[in-house]
């Protein structure tokens, strides 16, 4: 399979049984159960992506250790907001030169931060013959001076038959123009402070050709740009863009499976880092960082889930490398 313009079409034959996935809707969330995974999608509260602690790997009993997976923040661009920070509404102000954000000047074009401030989404979960699809969307409601509100974020997640991972895409349709617009998200997700001792190591494919980092290297806080930082303008395009943490087996305490987040087209990554905040180990990514005009779209596609080895991650990544978007019909999905 080529690394560019990939199209993956999952069809089915008449003799195949439908997927044995079950969906349940609750007041606060929607839950999905497959033979391989459990996952939930928040309707009220900390929204977007897969709910914190809900991605259960049934083969090992492992769960994600953070605040959720594929969690969405602001639409941003390079440059400082110092000159008009006092005029910004909500959570748009972005303070750099800090332990949390590092030294690089950036500013929010539109907000709020979806995960913490949108407060309510309506995940649409649809079971097809060979997969289950989850759709979410949100129009941004506040903007920086001189910018409009209303850019559309759309998220699609696919849970295919027989897999321990899901495929996702995040897309922005912009009502503004920028010379280097990007979307910030957690990919795959953070590790909560209280769960750090449940992880044994972290893998970053773009550091030193692929670096395994003991969890002890994150014992004390450090800023995003101090170490384990990737920038496309400085480092070029990575061969692969995979970030993963290894979970300890909940029964034995021995190293278990890897929870990975793969950005399938490494060229879309503007910046990504893995750093320690006082309350978590962060795995944050920004995709885009190129000119966008009013009405244009930009997107990225990901694979997120459980893997038994780094070699398995590489193999799956290379099968789908180059994809930037996800399209769903009634009976199939395409990763383009």
3D architecture notes:
The chain is mainly beta. It has a domain at 69-113 and 130-156 and 164-324. It is built from three helices and 26 strands. The strands form five sheets. It has a nine-stranded antiparallel β-sheet, covered by helices on one side. The radius of gyration is 19 Å and the shape is globular.
Explain briefly what this protein structure is.
The chain has about 325 residues and is mainly β.
Give the tags.
336 residues; mainly beta; nine-stranded antiparallel beta sheet; 44% strand; disordered N terminus
Strand order in the largest sheet: 10-11-13-14-24-21-20-17-18
pLDDT < 50 stretches: 1-14
Proportion of residues in helical segments: under 10%
Overall morphology: globular
Compressed to H and E, one letter per element, the order equals EEEEEEEEEHEEEEEEEEEEHEEEEEHEE
Structural class from helices and strands? mainly beta
Q: Whole-number average pLDDT?
A: 94
From the N-terminal CA to the C-terminal CA, the straight-line distance is 12 Å
Tell me the radius of gyration. 19 Å
Query: Helix tally?
Result: 3
Number of strands: 26
Biggest β-sheet description: 9 strands, antiparallel
- Estimate what percentage of residues fall within beta strands: 35-45%
């Amino acid at each position: 399979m080529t690394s560019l313009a990939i199209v993956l079409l999952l069809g089915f034959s008449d003799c195949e049984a439908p997927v044995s996935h079950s969906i349940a809707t609750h007041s606060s969330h929607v839950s999905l159960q497959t033979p391989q995974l459990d996952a939930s999608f928040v309707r009220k509260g900390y929204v977007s992506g897969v709910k914190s602690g809900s991605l259960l790997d049934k083969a090992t009993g492992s769960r994600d250790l953070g605040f959720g997976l594929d969690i969405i923040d602001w639409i941003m661009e390079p440059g400082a907001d110092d000159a008009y920070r006092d005029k910004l509404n909500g959570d748009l102000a972005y303070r750099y030169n800090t332990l949390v954000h590092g030294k690089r000047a950036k500013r929010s074009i539109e907000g709020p931060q979806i995960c913490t401030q949108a407060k309510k989404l309506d995940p649409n979960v649809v079971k097809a013959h060979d997969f289950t699809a989850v759709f979410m969307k949100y129009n941004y409601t506040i903007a920086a001076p001189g910018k409009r509100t209303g850019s559309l974020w759309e998220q699609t997640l696919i849970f295919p038959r027989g897999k321990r991972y899901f495929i996702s895409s995040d897309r922005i349709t912009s009502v503004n123009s920028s010379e280097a617009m990007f979307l910030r998200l957690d990919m795959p997700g953070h590790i909560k402070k209280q769960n750090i001792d449940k992880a044994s190591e972290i893998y970053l494919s773009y550091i030193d050709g692929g670096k395994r980092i003991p969890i002890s290297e994150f014992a004390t806080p450090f800023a995003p740009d101090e170490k384990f930082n990737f920038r496309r303008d400085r480092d070029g395009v990575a061969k692969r863009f995979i970030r993963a943490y290894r979970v300890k087996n909940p029964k034995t305490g021995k190293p278990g499976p890897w929870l990975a987040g793969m950005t399938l087209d490494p060229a879309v990554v503007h910046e990504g880092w893995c750093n320690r905040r006082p309350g978590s180990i962060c795995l944050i990514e920004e995709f885009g960082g190129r000119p966008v005009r009013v009405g244009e779209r930009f997107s990225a596609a990901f694979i997120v889930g459980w893997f038994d080895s780094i070699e398995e991650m590489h193999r799956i990544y290379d099968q789908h490398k180059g994809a930037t978007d996800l399209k769903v019909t009634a009976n199939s999905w395409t990763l383009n």
